[in-house]
Amino acid sequence: VLRGVEGPGDAEHAERVVARINVDLTCQLVRSRRPVALHVLASLPAGATGKVRRHALGDPRVAPLFSFAVA
Questions:
Q1: Which pLDDT score, from 0 to 100, does residue 19 have?
Q2: Which residues contact 35 (CB under 8 A, 6 or more apart)?
Q3: What is the value of pTM for the model shown?
Q4: pLDDT digits 0-9 by tens, 7-63
């Protein structure tokens, strides 16, 4: 979830932020530990207590707004 990214019209902003994240990850992690893709979501699936439901992230109904290959 990226602040300021609300929908498809924010693709350029999302791409810039993901590029900065990728640079930071490249500097801090060895290649085998870096993600191969980053996905931008509108919101994280949360339960009644507000905790993120990680198992729901793979649910097709939680579709990413954008996906970027960063490898």
A1: 92
A2: 25, 70, 71
A3: 0.75
A4: 778 888 888 989 999 999 999 999 999 999 998 888 889 999 999 999 998 888 888
**What distance lies between CA 47 and its chain's CA centroid?**
19
Q: CA 40, 46, 48 angle in degrees (round to 5)?
A: 165
What is the Cα–Cα distance from 8 to 42, expressed in whole angstroms? 10
Amino acid at 48: A
Question: Phi and psi at residue 12, in whole multiples of 5°?
Answer: -65, -45
Give DSSP secondary structure letters for 11-68: HHHHHHHHHHHHHHHHHHS-GGGS-SEEEE-SS--B-TTS-B-GGGGG-TTS--SEEE
